[in-house]
Write a structure and sequence with these properties.
Layout (H helix, E strand, L loop, with lengths): L3 H24 L6 H7 L5 H8 L12
Length: 65
């Protein structure tokens, strides 16, 4: 029974910390655009394709020191 004297305050503290973390996430905008990230993967990035075309091939080693 004396264990409850320790466990109840610890549980309340952890619950309040979780609530504070959730409130911080809400205020910092973590949940503003839920569909944007899911849809963003469906679109091709034209910028990446152009960058890949302009990359030169690495030099091949000649075997000479």
């Amino acid at each position: 029974m004396s264990g409850l004297l320790y466990l109840i305050p610890i549980a309340l503290f952890l619950g309040l910390m979780g609530l504070a973390g959730f409130m911080w996430a809400l205020r910092s905008g973590q949940f503003d655009d839920l569909d944007g990230a899911a849809e963003r993967i469906l679109y091709d990035d034209e910028d990446e394709a152009e960058d890949d075309d302009n990359v030169s091939e690495p030099e091949k080693p000649t075997g000479k020191p």
